[in-house]
């Protein structure tokens, strides 16, 4: 498959790029700092661009089969109004529509959308203080995706770690199961890469934890 990864230069995006290449996919790695990606592979195309710029995203979308969105913000941005997730998602959805690309896999996080109701009372106040602005925008991001008409899957990982890929994580599909926990970025990436060809979770928002 020809896969566009938006936010590919670090974190989950970089690990997803690595694992998608290992799985044999053609990967277009899109990020403002794409040139700094250290990976080399004949199936890897590094594209420098801004996820908020329509012309950049439109150009990156040409000829792809699947889009994986893995955007993040810096710690300092958490204490200012956050609009990156929703604004970039609007640009992406329009570009996907223009190119006829239907399959979208997106990372948000536990606490976004209707999973917010599953945050324990003990965790709710610190969560709101630190992550409230970002997750309000992630919730809007999720709503835009669900209303897009695309074949979407939303992954909501718990607290991210730098641990190894284990394959032993839990995929919590039912709201009654949702809870916080930890999970490595490598395991999140494994889940994302699996969804490139697996349609089991189309139109589902899932929580991922160990």
TrEMBL record:
Pfam families: NAD_binding_10 (PF13460)
Top-level taxon in the UniProt lineage: Bacteria
The name this protein goes by in its record: Putative NADH-flavin reductase
PANTHER family assigned: FLAVIN REDUCTASE (NADPH)
GO MF annotation terms: biliverdin reductase [NAD(P)H] activity; riboflavin reductase (NADPH) activity
Domain NAD(P)-binding: 7-198
Matches recorded under InterPro entries: NAD(P)-bd_dom, NAD(P)-bd_dom_sf, Polyketide_Oxido-like
């Amino acid at each position: 498959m020809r896969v566009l990864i938006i936010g590919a230069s670090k974190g989950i995006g970089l690990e997803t790029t690595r694992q998608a290449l290992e799985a044999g996919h053609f990967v277009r790695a899109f990020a403002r700092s794409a040139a700094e990606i250290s990976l080399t592979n004949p199936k890897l195309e590094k594209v420098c661009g801004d996820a908020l710029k329509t012309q950049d995203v439109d150009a990156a979308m040409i000829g792809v089969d699947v889009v994986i969105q893995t955007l993040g913000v810096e710690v300092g941005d958490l204490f200012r109004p956050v609009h990156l997730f929703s604004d970039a998602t609007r640009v992406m959805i329009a570009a996907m529509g223009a190119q006829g690309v239907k399959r979208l896999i997106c990372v948000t996080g536990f606490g976004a959308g209707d999973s917010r109701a599953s945050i324990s009372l003990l965790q709710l106040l610190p969560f709101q203080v630190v992550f409230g602005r970002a997750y309000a925008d992630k919730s809007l991001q999720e709503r835009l995706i669900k209303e897009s008409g695309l074949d979407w899957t939303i992954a909501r990982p718990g607290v991210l770690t730098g641990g190894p890929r284990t394959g032993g994580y839990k995929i919590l599909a039912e709201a009654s199961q949702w809870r916080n926990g930890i999970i490595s970025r490598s395991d999140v990436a494994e889940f994302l890469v699996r969804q490139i060809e697996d349609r089991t979770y189309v139109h589902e928002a899932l929580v991922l934890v160990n």
